[in-house]
Amino acid sequence: MIQTKKENDFSQGSIPRNIMSLALPMTAAQLVNVLYSLVDRIYLGRLPGTSHLALTGLGVTLPIISIVMGFANLCGTGGSPLCSISRGKGDDEEAERVMGNAFALLIALGLAITAFFLVLKRPILYAFGASDDTFPYADDYMTIYLCGTLFVMVSLGMNPFINAQGFGRIGMMTVVLGAAANIILDPIFIFDFGLGMGVKGAALATVISQGLSAIWVMRFLTGKKALLKLRRAYVRMEAGRTKNIVALGLSGFFMNMTNSLVQIVCNATLQAWGGDLYVGVMTIINSIREAVFMPVHGLTNGSQPVTGYNYGARKYTRVRQSIRFSVGVTVAYSALVWVVTMVFPGALIRIFNSEPDILRVGVPALRIYFCMFIFMSLQSSGQAVLVSLGRSRQAIFFSLLRKAFINAPLTVLLPMWGMGTTGVFVAEAVSQLVGGLASFLTMYINVYRLLGRLPDDGPPPAKWVH
Description:
Elements: H1 15-44, H2 51-89, H3 92-127, H4 135-147, H5 149-163, H6 168-190, H7 199-221, H8 239-273, H9 276-312, H10 316-343, H11 345-350, H12 356-370, H13 373-388, H14 392-419, H15 422-451
């Protein structure tokens, strides 16, 4: 059944306005979403007497959290562009079938992930950089967090289907609701003036907050206001649609998996060459990166429904306008972030911890880590275009290139070649430069310029298969 609904028709009106109507609430949502983990780290960094070990222990769990998020992105970023393309073609039934298929896949993966990590968490945490001193903190946090995996999967994996319909504010509220709850619950659960649960309290607050977000998502997608509804009849995995969702979602999935890989390699290498202090510094730097990079994610994610919709509607001129606008704003923002990180590294680190040793090691490390930040934003914008147009293979390749093929090997090799712990941070900068240029130039040559030679309302290139 093909419908012709015109609500949130991205083929009409100003491209910048269409993008920003989604990007601004999505950016706010992404920034608030970071607070789930950042608030935990800020509070744990101030625990009396144990802040250094608690923060480092939480840092060891970050790769596992990235893996959980990766599987959520596999379904969300794989299914939502397909929904946008189907909406652009006017086929709402197919869009709803894709969403139901993605939801069924989310639940199956969430149950499998929970069982896997609960059984093998001890050897995994030690392999990820835990020491005898930090393992108890990592274990306490991870055990409780894993019990809420399904909440995380649903809230992160299904929220893109709200944004794909043009309801950016509703999507923003998904994470605002959870983050606000986390901010309120964290001090109550963590510190002695409340329940005094420490690391366990931080994890419990996060799980409860994600549960509230998951309820919000499900109520909207099954309610009257949604243009595309999550229907029980469509909640099943079908081979063809599952294959398409996974193929397109592998880009976001590999971004999280390779982030997890690099975090593991970095933690293990820093533990070997510098000890818990350097693992703690990397935890802080990763926290800062998450916070400042979220607007880039928000903008690129906000542009995807507009780009995909216009591509499905064969409005190639508007697709190119979308690319130009999103890349321009992303680069301008990244340049501002670069200036702040170069000029005020100490102030950023003190948000999490102000111990003299942390500042001594962290200030030069932060400057090295962020010196090529602009190029990392170019990779994100380039990959977002590829995903929104269904060009999954290229997006997957660039997800792997920067982290798995450049960053991880250099993280191991540079310390051995005489750079010590500094080599870990240099490896990140080199990967940002090479990976960012490769991704963006490929998108520009093979997508942007090619679309400029196509007439509006004409067929897409025959080699572009969705």
